[in-house]
Design a protein that fits this description.
Keywords: 4Fe-4S, Iron, Iron-sulfur, Metal-binding, Molybdenum, Nitrate assimilation, Oxidoreductase. It holds the Pfam family Molybdopterin. It is a single chain. This protein has 722 residues and is α/β, with parallel strands linked by helices. It folds into 4 domains: 50 residues, N-terminal domain of TfIIb (Single Sheet), CATH 2.20.25; 255 residues, Rossmann fold, CATH 3.40.50; 225 residues, Dimethylsulfoxide Reductase, domain 2 (3-Layer(aba) Sandwich); 119 residues, Barwin-like endoglucanases. It is 33% helix and 17% strand. The chain has 27 helices and 26 strands. Strands 5-4-16-15-14-6-7 form a 7-stranded mixed beta sheet, with helices on both faces. A 6-stranded mixed beta sheet has the order 22-24-23-26-21-25. It is globular. The relative contact order is 0.17. The chain binds ligand MGD (2 copies) and molybdenum atom. One ligand MGD binds next to helix 4, helix 20, strand 15 and strand 21.
Length: 722
């Protein structure tokens, strides 16, 4: 049965093989535009998690402190009853929050979005996409007027230079990496630049590797722009015609000489010059940006910096010349476009009354029901409200925050609070589910029908190949059941949510997306059965004509201050008269909120390995993947290891002001003074007395603009352990 990969954002098309009602394998689909038959190791083996004997098969509720199995009627009854109690009290909508995912399907997000925004009317909705690609969305909105990826994967085939900004694509999107390697090993290979504090496979392949100090991306990008302008490598005509803010950009980056940048970033001035030349003299430059930028200090400013670089070189929307402000999760794009996170569906602007009116008409509800009086509550704030007690029901779907959020000791404390009613919807009894009041067993990929969209806007249909185990239900069915129990009504007293299955929701979503940047009106289930299709249909690249989505009536945001995150008013935005031009935004470098000290002298950064997906609920259950990376580690520079008296494989303690992990040392090409710990390892299968989740160490701090947490910069102390 046709589907696409669910363990990264590449959207590799595949067929699911079924025997005796069970999934028995997968293979890549040769005809698809995204992957041409290739698959990632996680996809080749990860499906085995579907068949795992410890899948949740019945709902559970907390009784006398323990979780016990029950039936759907009891479990959903409790969720609806608690919701009703809260809603019937004053300001009830403000007591209910939803924390969802980048791993459900488009239809599920849209249904959830309508439930939250038009049914309950809560502004407290977000996804783990806040931890993942909130910065991509913020940077795309601020530079180009709306979310939506300008580039296309075919740019890999056509470019003459590739710059990877904090993106270890070789381990995180292996099929895209193979496409890059095809070029590198073929005729006219593109030059390659890697910006990463570690010597990743990407860094080893690149012609130039800038091993920047974590948290200094803005200084680097400012310096590169300065050199490009200094050498006259920018496209003055494009800048004049299609952008706003060039003079101020030039003023802002002026102090960032190669020597100044070298001092901040810990690289050589000559390498800064070389990088500027590589970028400045290419004719078709492709950039990809990911977590080394998005989860690091000044995230949105750094990501906008890459947009700036492309805009001043006139390299947006051209074959081979473009930016991929990458997605990470398989369906992150859909959370953002369908409005299950803070955004309004269809990339609508919460500050624009006309956009609110459109939604109110579409859903036939009162405009005042739809939260739009302030920016939507971002995930980090939702958790704070839960901590402070104003939020009293938190419904978590398809994410495992007890391992994936920063400062886990705090998150465990919040989840365990008796006043907070926690609903967890998952496949397994995860670290988070163990702390829930109600656990809802979900069906997953291969067991339900729906669509999702990859990082280059390609939509795939994922068919239902097998039945879910036991009583597990598709997430959409769970949300629709809740809507029925809550009896949400529209302005005329008719059911707000009349849908019964995914295709009906998709039809409703098409209507909602009409005329917006993410227009799905040209896409149907039937057409998708032939293979992946990009939105909007017929546009391989956005902004090919140099006209951006910045018109005040159309744009998704009126802008934010890049250093404080403060939101601009409609008036101020209109006064800029963007008229379809893109914005060049820039700010100076500021150090991370936590930098090394005497007590915590080293920099910690965190991230991924090729064999595991996130908190490993799927990949630890695939024997091949688990065997390839069974336990966590810390990467140390050999000189740091020698100084600390640590040898390869020895146990070491890594401590931060928040907590400790004890993991094995690996001596690698990470920058001196920096250590790296993968964040995949939670505690469901941890040996006793060995804390090992990287997020025991990380801090509660976020980028002021995108509100994405800073997983890539903390201060730590490393010590040998016997
Ligand atoms: N194998 C695998 N693949 C995945 C996933 C997975 O869990 N496993 N998850 C998917 C998801 S959701 C995502 S979001 C993507 C993430 O994909 P990536 O962003 O490629 O993955 P990370 O390892 O989180 O971070 C990338 C790099 O950032 C570097 N880095 C750290 N700090 C800094 C800094 O300050 N500046 C710079 N320039 N670089 C820095 C790290 O050394 C790391 O190599 O992967 C997707 N694909
Ligand atoms: N230190 C550090 N922390 C990080 C990061 C980092 O680089 N460093 N990266 C961040 C990023 S980019 C991300 S994306 C997050 C990921 O963090 P999480 O979202 O917490 O990670 P997952 O393990 O993917 O959790 C998804 C959960 O959904 C369940 N699930 C899977 N499919 C379905 C389904 O169809 N329905 C339902 N209901 N459940 C399903 C899985 O069993 C799993 O428990 O972690 C973030 N945390
Ligand atoms: Mo992610």
């Amino acid at each position: 049965m046709p589907s696409a990969s669910i363990l990264h954002s590449n959207g590799d098309a595949m067929d699911i093989a079924v025997k005796g009602g069970r999934i028995v394998g997968v293979r890549g689909r040769a005809a698809d535009r995204v992957n041409r038959g290739r698959l990632d190791p996680k996809d080749l083996y990860g499906w085995q998690a579907n068949n795992s004997p410890d899948r949740l098969t019945r709902p559970m509720v907390r009784e006398g402190g323990r979780l016990v199995e029950t039936d759907w009627e009891t479990a959903m009854g409790r969720v609806a009853e608690r919701s009703r109690q809260l809603l019937d009290g004053p300001g009830g909508w403000g007591k209910i929050g939803f924390y969802t995912s980048g791993q459900l399907f488009l239809e599920e997000y849209y249904a959830l979005g309508v439930i939250g925004k038009a049914g309950i009317g809560t502004p407290h909705m977000d996804g783990n996409t806040r931890l993942c690609t909130a910065t991509a969305a913020a940077a795309l909105k601020l530079s180009f007027g709306a979310d939506g990826q300008p580039g296309s994967y075919t740019d890999v085939d056509l470019c003459d230079a590739i710059a990877l900004w904090g993106h270890n694509v070789a381990e995180t999107q292996t099929v895209l990496w193979m496409r890059m390697l095809d070029r590198r090993r073929g005729p006219n290979p593109p030059r390659m630049l890697a910006v990463d504090p570690r010597e990743t496979p990407v860094a080893r392949e690149a012609d130039l590797h800038l091993a920047v100090r974590p948290g200094t991306n803005v200084a680097l990008v400012n310096g590169l722009i300065r050199q490009i302008v200094h050498h006259g490598w920018h496209d003055r005509a494009y800048v004049d015609e299609h952008t706003i803010g060039f003079d101020e950009l030039v003023r802002t980056v002026d102090p960032y000489t190669p020597a100044h940048v070298a001092g901040i970033c810990g690289v050589s001035p000559a390498d800064v010059e070389r990088a500027a030349e590589l970028l400045g003299t290419s004719e078709r430059l492709l950039s990809t940006v990911l977590q080394g930028f998005y989860q690091s200090n000044q995230a949105t400013a750094a990501a906008c910096g890459v947009n700036n670089l492309h805009l001043i070189r006139g390299m947006i929307g051209k074959p081979g010349g473009g930016v991929l402000q990458m997605n990470g999760q398989p369906t992150a794009e859909n959370t953002r476009e369908a409005g299950a996170d803070g955004d309004l569906p269809g990339f609508r602007n919460w500050g624009n009354p006309e956009h609110i009116r459109e939604l109110a008409d579409l859903w036939n509800v009162d405009e005042m029901t739809i939260p739009h009086w302030a920016p939507p509550t971002h995930a980090m704030q939702i958790w704070r409200y839960a901590e402070q007690g104003s939020l009293q029901l938190l419904w978590i779907s398809a994410t495992n925050p007890a391992v994936s959020l920063p400062d886990l000791a705090r998150i465990r404390r919040i989840l365990a609070k008796p006043e907070l009613f926690v609903v967890v919807q998952d496949l397994f009894l995860t670290e988070t589910a163990q702390l829930a009041d109600v656990v809802l067993p979900a069906a997953t990929w291969g067991e339900k029908l729906g669509t999702f969209t990859n990082a280059d806007r390609t939509v795939h249909l994922s068919e239902k190949a097998v039945d879910p185990p036991g009583e597990a239900r598709a997430d959409l069915d769970i949300f629709l059941d809740y809507a029925r129990r809550m009896d949400f009504r529209d302005r005329d007293g008719n059911p707000l949510i009349p849908w019964t299955g995914p295709e009906e929701v998709f039809e409703a979503w098409r209507e909602c997306s009409k005329g917006r940047p993410c227009d799905y009106t040209g896409i149907t289930y039937e057409a998708l059965r032939e293979g992946g299709i990009q939105w909007p249909v017929g546009k391989e690249r956005l902004y090919a004509d140099g006209v951006f989505h910045t018109d005040p009536a159309y744009c998704e945001t009126y802008g934010q201050d890049l250093s404080t995150g403060a939101e601009f008013e409609a008036e101020a935005y209109r006064a800029k008269q963007p008229g379809g031009r893109a914005f060049l935004h820039a700010v100076g470098y500021q150090p991370s909120p936590e930098t090394p000290s005497d007590d915590y002298p080293m920099r910690l950064t965190t991230g991924r390995t090729v064999y595991h997906f996130h908190t490993r609920t799927k990949t630890a259950r695939a024997p091949e993947l688990n065997a390839a990376a069974p336990a966590p580690w810390v990467e140390l520079h050999p000189a740091d290891a020698a100084r600390l008296g640590v040898t390869e494989g020895a146990p070491v303690a890594v401590r931060s002001p928040r907590g400790e992990v004890i993991v094995e040392a690996r001596l690698t090409g990470v920058r001196e003074g920096t250590v790296f710990v993968p964040f995949h390892y939670g505690y469901f299968d941890a040996p006793p007395g060995r804390p090992r989740a990287a997020n025991e160490l990380t801090l509660t701090a976020w980028d002021p603009v995108s509100k994405q947490p800073l997983f890539k910069v903390a201060a730590v102390r490393v010590e040998p352990r016997s």
